[in-house]
Amino acid sequence: MESRGCAAQEVTPMSVEAIRCRITYEGQDFWLASQERVEMTLPSSDELGEGEYSGFWYETRDTDDQVLYRQVIGTPIRYDYEVSDVDTDGFVRVPADVVAGDFAVLVPADLNARFLVLNSSPLATESEAEAATELVRFDLWSE
Known about the structure:
Layout: E1 3-5, E2 14-26, E3 29-42, E4 52-54, E5 56-61, E6 67-73, E7 80-85, E8 90-95, E9 100-108, E10 115-120, E11 133-139
Parallel strand pairs: 1-4
Antiparallel strand pairs: 2-3, 2-9, 5-6, 5-10, 7-8, 10-11
C-alpha cells in the first residue's frame, strides 16, 4: 500500500453562501452539534488523485455518494500534545488524557449536499502517516 500525504493545491477562492458545521467529539464519538448559514469566501474544492492518502479532510457528498466539495486540513482532533522533554532539552508528543473538543468546518450551502464526511488517518501519533479512511458521516438532511 502506497500512502501519500495530502497537500492542498493552489486554490481560487469562491464567494458563496456557506454553512458552518460545528462538530463535537469525545473519544471516537462525533456529533454534528450545529449548522449555521454564513456569507463567506471559501477556497475552491481540493482534488485528490487516485490512490490512498494520509491526513485529514472533509467532504460534502450527494445522494449518489459523489464528492461535491472537499477541503484538506490539518487534523482538528487533539489526540496528543507536544511537551518539553527535560532529558533531551527538546520536545516529545504525549497522548492526551482525554480526547474531546469541538471544531468547525465550512462548506458551500449546496442543496444537493446530503452528507458531510470526515476522513482521517488513525488518530494516534504512531499511525498518522497511515492511509486515511472515513471517520464519520453526518446526514445533513436529518434534523
